[in-house]
């Protein structure tokens, strides 16, 4: 039993393998949060708190004349609004009479086997069949607004998920101005906030700052989870590092606008919240109606950031991703985008397929430009039928010819979008978001389809299903290349326009659900101008997401580093592209590009015809290496071994959970003359075992020329003890040249 109710103390305690989470029902019925942290034996954490009259803090009526009890100072499980708590809140409701009150009291709780379900939204699932659900019900007596606070308890995974079912059990209409998914008070301690900000082509940059008495928010108003902030944040001890310190993670299973807030209050208690962004959000609940929030995945590590990442990696792989390709080996692909952009014909594509087959690639992906009048990015979105001026043989025949060369075939679509220059727009101009009397803002010269309307979703589904069922397509790159604006649905009344943003998301998830359910053999890769929708919501439909439009491996180190805090390598779409790089003009060795891309789903995004024979030979070797270490890379424990930007190199490692093998990766980002030696201490090995080293990069990076030393190339030791590698480390010889990369494999031999 991982959920315990203590009748004497009125505490509800959730235990996972390594954590405990406790809340308490006070004698007045307030639901208070007492503890989340390292697992502790049976204890009543009420002793941690003392009530004082702190002045100017409202006191609920039933505690009169006690002035020491106030919503404003008590730790709460799910803070309401308008009744005396002035801190950040989790829900705001406007009642039929115009009052803004939401004041909740405990009404009961229930423990059920299995994981709760949220209708119409993606959420985690019970992979191993031992999850439990705790439902705590609280209600507002005056309005009848009821909250079912849902806790999914994954004991072995050390995860607690949270969501809320908001029910109008009253007699009047209630408008929700905010309906967040979670709130948590952490009454003691000084904390840092780690969040992942960015921009197009430079997503998930790691930023860490102290939480102070200012309210800080991590948010997106863009209708996508966004390039600019990721819906994942960490609150950790000021001194926490990879291996030490308390760390809380909060990850939103949602791909639209979101807001996560953190505030240190007047008595230094920290509150964190997370939910759908409340800008342009208003949900009307008629009597009897229910609103379900998306889910937040919460985790706690008492042993630093690496352990927190490992919890998320495992949970996403097992409890978020699903379908045929969840664990099955995924094909190594060649994507046509950076090879030819919009400029191709069936003949050039077949030539590309020939080249791809020769270097050992397994799938050709035809990116943007194959449909409608799509010769540039100004036209064609919405017209999902093949452009026979470019693909004269037709799509079916093209796919068959590619298959005949031994390659699978994948295709790109951007289903949520429409160009004004398209047959679809000419037929249904009102299907695009636009506000009455205003010309909507274009972005990449495209508009957004109103997926809050069922007939639009049905149309898009039918046109996608036609392409997928008529052709042997085994992979779909599902793109989405703009932020939402002018969000207004011609199909909703004025009073309901605040629902449109979220209804768009519900329409999108319906569409993704139908496609993945009806085409279970198609591997879907999410994408949004690169990584603007890199989130756990999308990962419920596609086990991988194109991580960034920036394929420069040196930037990718940074992007993939930030991504790794919350998301496993198996979700990170990453390709080797041409040099000089198309986004930055930087030149890097093909070996370095491959070492970086291998820490992802791996593939190519270039025209092999433009490569030298040596480079093609090297690619064959890259594919051999990736194949050889596939399970270790995709399923092993990921260790960050350098703090990004702090050293002239970046290092990371994959280690098997049982310590039997490890793959160490290093890229030198700032080569120096007379350099200090690079020494890396590995992690996750068996200290008493002996490991044999295979240098997979030996041929591909240069040592310093011999004129500098006579000792060169004498480093022939191949057997190392695990403890030596972990505590003294491995020291590389001096390296030379532009951005060299090293890849060392250690296998336990005794
Ligand atoms: C987005 C994607 C790219 C590519 C283009 C095509 O930018 O992120 O990978 O598919 O669209 O237009």
What's the SSE blueprint?
Elements: E1 3-6, E2 11-15, E3 19-25, E4 31-38, E5 91-94, E6 105-113, E7 132-139, E8 145-154, E9 159-168, E10 174-186, E11 191-199, E12 202-210, E13 216-220, E14 232-237, E15 247-253, E16 258-264, E17 270-276, E18 283-285, E19 290-292, E20 295-301, H1 305-320, E21 333-335, H2 337-340, H3 346-359, E22 363-366, H4 395-404, E23 408-413, E24 417-418, H5 423-427, E25 447-448, H6 454-470, E26 475-478, H7 500-518, E27 523-526, H8 536-539, E28 544-546, H9 553-564, E29 572-573, E30 576-577, H10 590-597, E31 603-605, H11 613-628, H12 630-635, E32 637-640, E33 649-655, E34 661-668, E35 679-680, E36 690-695, E37 702-703, E38 719-721, H13 722-727, E39 730-731, E40 735-736, E41 741-748
Helix pairs in contact: 6-7, 9-10, 10-11
The site of alpha-D-galactopyranose has 12 residues, from loops.
Characterise this structure:
With 750 residues, the protein is an alpha+beta fold. 18% of the residues lie in helices and 29% in strands. The strands form eight sheets. Strands 6, 7, 8, 9, 11, 12, 14, 15, 19 and 20 form a ten-stranded antiparallel beta sheet that branches. Helix 6 (454-470) runs parallel beside helix 7 (500-518), helix 9 packs parallel to helix 10 (590-597) and helix 10 (590-597) packs parallel to helix 11. The two termini are 40 Å apart. 53% of the residues are buried. The model has no long low-confidence stretch (mean pLDDT 97). The structure holds alpha-D-galactopyranose (GLA). Alpha-D-galactopyranose binds next to loops.
């Amino acid at each position: 039993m991982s959920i315990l109710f203590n009748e004497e103390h009125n505490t509800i305690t959730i235990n996972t393998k390594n954590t405990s989470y406790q809340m308490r029902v006070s004698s007045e019925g307030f639901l208070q949060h007492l503890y989340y942290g390292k697992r502790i034996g049976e204890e009543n954490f009420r002793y941690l708190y003392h009530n004082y009259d702190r002045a100017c803090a409202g006191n609920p009526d039933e505690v009169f004349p006690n002035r020491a009890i106030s919503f404003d100072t008590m730790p709460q499980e799910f803070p309401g609004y308008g009744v005396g708590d002035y801190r950040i809140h989790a829900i705001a409701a406007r009642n039929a009479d115009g009052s803004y009150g939401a004041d909740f009291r405990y009404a009961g709780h229930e423990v059920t086997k299995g994981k709760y379900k949220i209708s119409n939204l993606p959420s985690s699932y019970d992979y191993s069949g031992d999850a439990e659900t705790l439902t705590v019900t609280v209600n507002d007596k005056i309005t009848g607004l009821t909250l079912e606070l849902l806790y999914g308890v994954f004991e072995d995974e050390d995860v607690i998920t949270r969501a809320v079912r908001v029910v109008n059990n009253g007699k009047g209409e209630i408008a929700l101005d905010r309906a967040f998914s979670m709130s948590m008070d952490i009454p003691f301690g000084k904390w840092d906030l780690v969040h992942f900000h960015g921009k197009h082509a430079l997503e998930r940059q790691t930023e860490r700052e102290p939480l102070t008495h200012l309210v800080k928010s991590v948010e997106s108003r863009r209708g996508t989870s966004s390039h600019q902030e990721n819906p994942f944040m960490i609150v950790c001890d000021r001194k926490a590092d990879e291996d030490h310190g308390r760390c809380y993670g909060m990850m939103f299973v949602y791909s639209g606008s979101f807001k996560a807030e953190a505030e240190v209050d007047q008595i230094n208690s920290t509150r964190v919240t997370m939910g759908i962004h409340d800008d342009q959000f208003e949900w009307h609940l008629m009597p009897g109606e229910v609103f379900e929030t998306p889910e937040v995945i919460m985790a706690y590590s008492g042993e630093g950031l690496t352990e927190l990442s490992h919890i998320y990696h495992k949970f996403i792989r097992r409890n978020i991703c699903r379908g045929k390709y969840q664990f099955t080996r995924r094909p190594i692909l060649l994507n046509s985008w950076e090879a030819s952009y919009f400029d191709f014909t069936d003949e050039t594509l077949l030539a590309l397929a020939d080249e791809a087959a020769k270097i050992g690639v397994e799938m050709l992906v035809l990116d943007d430009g194959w449909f409608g009048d799509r010769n540039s990015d100004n036209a064609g979105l919405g017209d999902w039928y093949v452009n026979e001026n470019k693909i004269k043989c037709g799509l079916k025949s093209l796919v068959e010819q590619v298959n005949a060369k031994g390659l699978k075939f994948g295709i790109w679509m951007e289903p949520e979008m429409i160009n004004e220059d398209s047959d679809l727009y000419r037929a249904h101009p009102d299907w695009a978001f636009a506000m009455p009397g205003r010309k909507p803002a274009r972005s990449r010269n495209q508009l957004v389809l109103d997926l809050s309307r069922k007939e639009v979703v049905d149309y898009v589904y039918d046109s996608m299903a036609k392409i997928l069922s008529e052709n042997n397509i085994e992979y779909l790159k599902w793109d989405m290349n703009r932020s939402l604006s002018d969000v207004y649905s011609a199909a909703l009344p004025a009073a309901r326009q605040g629902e449109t943003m979220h209804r768009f998301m519900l329409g999108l998830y319906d569409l993704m659900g139908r496609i993945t359910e009806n085409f279970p053999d198609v591997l879907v890769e999410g994408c949004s101008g690169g990584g603007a929708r890199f989130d756990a919501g999308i990962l419920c439909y596609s086990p991988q997401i194109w991580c960034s439009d920036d394929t420069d491996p040196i930037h990718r180190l940074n992007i993939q580093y930030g991504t790794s805090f919350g998301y496993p390598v198996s979700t990170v779409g990453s390709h080797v592209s041409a040099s000089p790089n198309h986004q930055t003009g930087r030149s890097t060795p093909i070996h370095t590009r491959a070492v970086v891309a291998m820490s992802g789903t791996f593939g190519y995004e270039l025209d092999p015809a433009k490569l030298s024979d040596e480079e093609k030979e090297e690619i064959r070797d890259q594919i051999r290496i990736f194949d050889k270490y596939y399970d270790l890379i995709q399923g092993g424990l990921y260790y960050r071994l350098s703090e990004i930007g702090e050293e002239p190199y970046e290092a990371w490692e994959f280690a098997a959970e049982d310590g039997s093998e490890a793959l160490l990766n290093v890229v030198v980002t700032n080569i120096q003359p007379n350099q200090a030696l690079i020494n890396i201490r590995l992690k996750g090995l068996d200290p008493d075992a002996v490991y044999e080293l295979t240098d997979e990069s030996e041929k591909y990076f240069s040592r310093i020329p011999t004129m500098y030393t006579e000792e060169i190339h004498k480093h022939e030791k191949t057997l190392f003890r695990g403890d030596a590698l972990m505590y003294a480390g491995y020291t590389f010889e001096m390296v030379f040249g532009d951005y060299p990369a090293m890849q060392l494999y250690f296998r336990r031999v005794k």
